[in-house]
Amino acid sequence: MINEGNQISDILNSLGGAQRNIVNQNSRIDKDSFLKLLFTQLKYQDFESSVDYKDLLSQLSILAQIEQSMNVSRQIQELAKSVTRMNFLSASAILGKNAFVDGDALSVSGGVPESLPAFSIDIPVNRVIVKIKAQGGLTVRTIELNNVPAGKHFVSWDGKNDAGNTVQEGEYTFEVQAYDSFGNKFAPSKLVYGKIDSITLEGTSVKFGMGKTKFEFEKVTEVKE
Asked: Which one of 42, 129, 172, 221 has the fewest CB atoms closer than 10 angstroms to its CB?
């Protein structure tokens, strides 16, 4: 017969670490293993020996809290899945429409841009300069706009460089600089404008595509009819 009354308390004392890692499937001891070990100790426990039952009951309450935490964790995971499904259905409603999206990633396929550089300004400006860059930072095209009102604007680009040649197929980025009526330079918010042609569900993230470029659903700032 096992005569060590403090063994149960020693086991329960390990719950602090288990509680912190309860959602980690690789924890050293999971709930089922712990209960099996606890009941084994109770089976062979000599209850005539000295046991701190107040401490034992207190630590057993920790087990109840862990069980509750596990249930809450499962509920949160299910809620996250539900929210993701609702976002996916909402995103499906804008399939085939044009939209402004936070970002600066562009793509060209077959000599045709699949999305366009865009920007947002809060005040009218005298001049806006847009520089489209290939991978590595090389500027392939510079486009200048004059007397631009406040609001969101996209920049027409034919997929050609400054020499008039069609750029290579691939990914591009862009920079935007604006100059107000006093000649002060500032950087407007960069956007991408294009047609949403695909919606995908990747884990708990909903993403949509403008050609080969993927964006998170949360980055949509405006949808155009």
From this structure: 42
